[in-house]
Amino acid sequence: MLTLHDSLKFEKQDFDITAYGEVLLDMISREEAPLKECANFTRYFGGSPANVLVNMQRLENKTAFISRVGKDEFGEYLIETLENENINLDCMQYDQEEGTPIIFVNKNKETPSWIAYRGADINLQISEQIYDKIDNSSIFFTGSFILSKNPARATAIKAIDYAVKKNKIFAFDPSFRANLWPEGNKGSEIIRGLLAQSDFIKPSLDDAYHLYGQDHPENYLKKYHSDGAKIVILSLGKDGVLLSDGSTEPLHIPVFSEKVVDVTGAGDSFWSGFLTGILKGLPINEAAKLGNAVAAFKIQGVGALSSVPPLSEIIAYYDIQPIEGGNFNE
């Protein structure tokens, strides 16, 4: 059973992390206004799993991506971005009929609203290459967006089952929204079923509300654990995160920066810092601090891929404490 003070050790693999899911265009408004009132948008690289991988690659990890884009110019832009970041794309699929997905987002210092136009991402297919990438990775990561429709959902579940069977660390972002699922609220049963397979989950208060209804943060933690989640990192927005292992008192970690320009991709930045810490041998509670530190730099820029400093500067600036025998110097 994992506790907040545990650190994990990994055998050397070809890849630190393989992520499964969407890569898309984020069209972020230039105005801070309700989405229906926004008239001007700027194009940004987006998609939660893709954002996590780019930031993890920048934090000195080896990453691989399982995704699908349209055979169009927007898909070319996203692929070029991923290639420039040196992310392995052996499992990238190309759709001849459906286009690259696009999401319109309103610029916001709190929780943004968005409208998704799906496409090629829905058609992700299982392959032996996917199983091979999971075999040769330490962590498998996915989110809920890609789970909302088939065949991508069925492919994701096969990949998750395989990763769990192979004793890979499974990190899951359970951001359920009923309006994305043909089954509506019944889709929450699939999300809750995956919680028990997860080693780490990082829901926000909004995510918890959409899955369980209105409640207090401490009760949300209990509900996630009741559904089988091991380590729960509940994002409280400007109030930081609550970290829980279900057996000890939850740990509150405040935000590391009061300066907020745009929160798009802040959760993905947290994931990239947190999972980097886990891979580098930090105890889980210290890895969560590293997640907060990376997110603090992210929210001071616009777009999910606003720059962050090198890993060594982040841990020095925020006084992150590696344990003896960790591998931060590798």
Main attributes of the structure:
single chain; 330 residues; alpha/beta; nine-stranded mixed beta sheet; four-stranded mixed beta sheet; globular
Structural notes for this entry:
This protein has helices spanning 48-58, 73-84, 128-135, 152-165, 188-195, 205-212, 217-226, 266-279, 284-298, 311-317; strands at residues 15-20, 24-29, 41-46, 63-70, 88-95, 102-105, 114-117, 137-143, 169-173, 200-201, 231-235, 241-244, 251-253. With 330 residues, it is α/β, with parallel strands linked by helices. It has a single domain (15-317), classed as UDP-N-acetylmuramoyl-L-alanine:D-glutamate ligase. The strands form 2 sheets. A 9-stranded mixed sheet has the order 5-4-1-8-9-10-11-12-13, with helices on both faces. A 4-stranded mixed sheet has the order 3-2-6-7. One of its GO terms (molecular function) is fructokinase activity. Belongs to the carbohydrate kinase PfkB family. Its EC number is 2.7.1.4.
